[in-house]
């Protein structure tokens, strides 16, 4: 069936609506997530750079102290002690200074004369060493800068307190750590040995180009979500808004594309509605005196669709008017070539609905139809069903008057099934009554229906109207109707509806 009010099951339509709403939300969400990741990566990189810069600045001071003291190495501790202390006082961040000779620390700003072996192998690049603490401050890590020249050596130390301060202050939102060789310092100032932890989000390790240390920055697990939920709520609202709009549009588009009207409009544009002809024969001679034009839908997927399945939709949508116009034009184009060969006016029955009678456009359609034929070669008969009576109005009055002037004939279709009154028949200047096939089907079967049929025939005779019996399928029906003076017969007994072109070809063969 080509037309269903719901082209897709409800579930699928709902799913498509949801999907069209969710897709932009999801897409927007992914973009925001990526954006948040980018922001965090950038922030982590900047933090690492800033911390590195600060550490380098501190080390510059520390290194300067060691550089100035190095030439003094080898002199007796009493002689240089003051110079050692002066560096501690003068230079910011420097916590202590020491002199070495032949890898032995022999003089310290803290303890004066001293003696401790200090292998340079523990130092990163022989230069830097992070130490857990010393006997004076066992819980505060510090960084040792060592400078050597032959047997001479100078060491200055940098307090871990300053280092962890930097880690804490610069990396307020970021996790930061300072690594020197196998040791590292976390923001809480504690000393660690071994591999530092991996930061789950946006980890960035930056090695100083000037000193052998590196800084690692990053964020804890779930930071992307935390960042998004604190920074993006207005964008989320916007996304939700777009999602609802997109869902709504998806819903409307589906509704439109699944609407029978749209599908029929498409079919009309694609010229899928085609005329079929069914012969109407003279009852006595059984000679074909005309045709009833029946519409078929040549659907590309469904094949040939019979009129009952789509005419109600076409009537409802108003498309029946252009559809009938198309059928009339096709009929005229096909049949006009034959019109010169008709010795008597050939009857062409076209089905018209009540909708079609609401304006005067039908008059013009009929005028054009008739103009295609040799004058007097055909009789155009409009078939109006009795099932749906036409509301009489000034327009319908005018319409039927003008149709009559054009010589268009009127048949009441499906006669006997509705309630047309005598007045109704007179008003439209009816020429034919088409007896409904349900009465014809009862011939020889149901005596009551036969009685009704007889009264219909009697009524038509009294009104002086010609009669056509529809749905004649058996010889018995044909004989009965002929015996009861029904003028014309139509039904499978004489011919089924066939494509107009085939019908015309068959005419030529006769
Ligand atoms: P209708 O005007 O009463 O047309 C006669 C219907 O009876 C046709 O069905 C025809 O195929 C069928 N028929 C003809 N002879 C026999 C027979 O011996 N036995 C049986 N059982 N049926 C027979 P169809 O073509 O399916 O059309 C159905 C209805 O659709 C038509 O009833 C008419 O009301 C409407 N229709 C068809 N074409 C058009 C059209 O172009 N415009 C409008 N407005 N309505 C149309
Ligand atoms: Ca009809
Ligand atoms: Ca009928």
Automatic annotation (TrEMBL):
Alphabetized UniProt keyword annotations: c-di-GMP, Cell membrane, Hydrolase, Membrane, Transmembrane, Transmembrane helix
Keyword Hydrolase in annotation: yes
Main location: membrane
Compartment list: Cell membrane
Limits of the EAL domain: 257-510
Root EC class: hydrolase
Protein's membrane topology: Multi-pass membrane protein
This protein's name: cyclic-guanylate-specific phosphodiesterase
Superkingdom per UniProt: Bacteria
Transmembrane segments: 12-34, 235-253
Family annotation (CDD domains): EAL
Catalyzed reactions: 3',3'-c-di-GMP + H2O = 5'-phosphoguanylyl(3'->5')guanosine + H(+)
Cited PROSITE patterns: EAL
Known EC number: 3.1.4.52
Keyword Oxidoreductase carried by entry: no
């Amino acid at each position: 069936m080509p037309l269903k009010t719901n082209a897709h099951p409800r579930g699928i339509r709902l799913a498509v609506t949801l999907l069209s709403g969710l897709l932009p939300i999801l897409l927007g969400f992914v973009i925001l997530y990526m954006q948040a990741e980018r922001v965090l990566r950038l922030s982590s990189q900047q933090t690492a750079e800033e911390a590195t810069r600060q550490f380098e600045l501190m080390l510059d001071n520390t290194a300067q102290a060691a550089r100035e003291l190095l030439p003094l190495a080898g002199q007796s501790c009493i002689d240089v002690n003051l110079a050692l202390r002066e560096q501690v006082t003068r230079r910011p961040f420097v916590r202590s200074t020491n002199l070495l000779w032949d890898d032995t620390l022999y003089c310290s700003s803290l303890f004066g004369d001293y003696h401790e072996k200090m292998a340079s192998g523990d130092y990163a690049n022989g230069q830097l060493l992070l130490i857990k603490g010393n006997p004076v401050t066992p819980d505060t890590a510090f960084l040792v800068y060592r400078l050597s020249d032959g047997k001479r050596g100078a060491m200055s130390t940098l307090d871990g307190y300053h280092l962890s301060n930097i880690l804490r202050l610069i990396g307020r939102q970021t996790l930061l750590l300072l690594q020197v060789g196998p040791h590292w310092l976390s923001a809480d100032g504690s000393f660690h040995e071994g591999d530092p932890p991996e930061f789950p989000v946006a980890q960035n390790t930056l090695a100083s180009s000037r000193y052998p240390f590196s800084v690692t920055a990053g964020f804890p697990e779930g930071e992307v979500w935390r960042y998004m939920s604190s920074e993006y709520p207005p964008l989320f609202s916007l996304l939700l808004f777009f999602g609802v709009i997109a869902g709504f549009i998806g819903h409307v588009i589906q509704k439109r594309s699944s609407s029978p009207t749209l599908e029929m409009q498409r079919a009309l544009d694609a010229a899928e509605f085609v005329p079929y002809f069914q012969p109407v024969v003279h009852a006595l001679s059984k000679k074909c005196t005309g045709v009833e034009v029946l519409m078929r839908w040549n659907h590309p997927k469904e094949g040939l669709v019979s009129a009952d399945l789509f005419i109600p939709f076409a009537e409802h949508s108003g498309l029946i008017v252009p559809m009938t116009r198309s059928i009339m034009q096709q009929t005229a184009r096909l049949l006009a070539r034959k019109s010169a060969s008709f010795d008597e006016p050939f009857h062409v029955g076209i089905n018209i609905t009540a909708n079609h009678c609401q304006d005067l456009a039908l008059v013009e359609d009929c005028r054009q139809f008739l103009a295609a034929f040799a004058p007097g070669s055909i009789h155009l008969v409009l078939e109006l069903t009795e099932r749906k009576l036409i509301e009489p109005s000034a327009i319908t009055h005018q319409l039927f008057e003008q149709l009559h002037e054009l010589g268009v004939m009127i048949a009441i279709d499906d006669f006997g099934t509705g309630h047309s009154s005598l007045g109704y028949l007179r008003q439209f200047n009816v020429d034919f009554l088409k007896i409904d096939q349900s009465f014809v089907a009862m011939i020889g079967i149901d005596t009551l229906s036969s009685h009704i049929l007889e009264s219909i025939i009697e009524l038509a005779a009294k009104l002086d109207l010609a009669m056509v019996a529809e749905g004649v399928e058996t010889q018995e029906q044909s004989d009965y109707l002929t015996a009861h003076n029904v003028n014309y017969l139509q039904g499978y007994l004489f011919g089924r509806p066939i494509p107009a072109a085939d019908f015309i070809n068959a005419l030529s063969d006769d």
